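for ur thesis appendix - Large ribosomal subunit protein uL29m. copy paste whatever u need, i formatted it the way the template wanted (i think)
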Amino acid sequence: MLSTLQNRAARSLCSLPSVCRRTLATHVPAPTASGVPSTSSAGSTSANGYGTEDGPLRPHLGIEVNPNHGLYAFFRKKEKDGKVWYDTVEAVDVVADKSGRSWTAAELRRKSFKDLHTLWYVVLRERNLLATQQAEARRLGANEQALSLWAKAHRCRKTMARIKYVINERRLAYEGALKIHNEQREQALKAEDSVRAAAEKQAELAAAKEEKVRRRERGTADVAAEGLFERIPEAETVKA
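the 3d part is after this line
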C-alpha cells in the first residue's frame, strides 16, 4: 500500500511542468537604486522592466577610460573647438590633407641614430593607422584607391626602407673602419715585435762580445801565470 502511494506521488510530481521539464534560463534584471525600472528615451519599458521595445540594453557602468591609451593610436585623432574624436576612416580632403612625400636617403644621412630610431616608430605608427583604415574601408565596402590609403602606405614603406638602407650604410662603414683599425693594430704589433726582437738580438750580441772579451782577458792572465811558475825552477837550478 505504501509503495502504491509513493508511485502515485511521483507520477503527480512528474506531471507538473515546473518540476519535470527543463525550461530556458531567464535573465533577471539587477534592481536599481530607486527601485524604478529603466525607461527608454520615449518613456516605454519592456515586460521585465529592463530593456526597451528594441531590445535589452546594458546599464552604463560609468568606467573611466584612459584618454592616452595606446589603442587610440590606431585611429586618427581630430580636435575642434576643444572636442576630441577619432576617425576610423578619413574622408578625402585635398585642401586639409597634410600628408607629404617620403624621406630621402640624403635627408636621413644627416640624422642621428636616436632620430632615426624615433622616426622609424613614428612611421610605423602611421603605417598601422593606415592599415586599420584600409581594413575598416574594406569592411564598409569603400574604395581604398579613392581614399589614397595605398599611396600613403607606400610612402611609409619607402621611408622605412630608406631608414634601413642608411643604417646599413653606417653598419658597413663601421665594419670597414673596424677592419682597417684591426689591420693597423696588427701591423703596429708586428712592428713592435720586430723592434723587440732586434733589441733582444743586439743585447745577445753585446753580451756575447763582452763574454768573449772576458774570456780573452782571462786566458791572457792564465798564460802569464803559467809562464811565471815555469821560470822559477830554472832560476833555482842556476843558483845551485
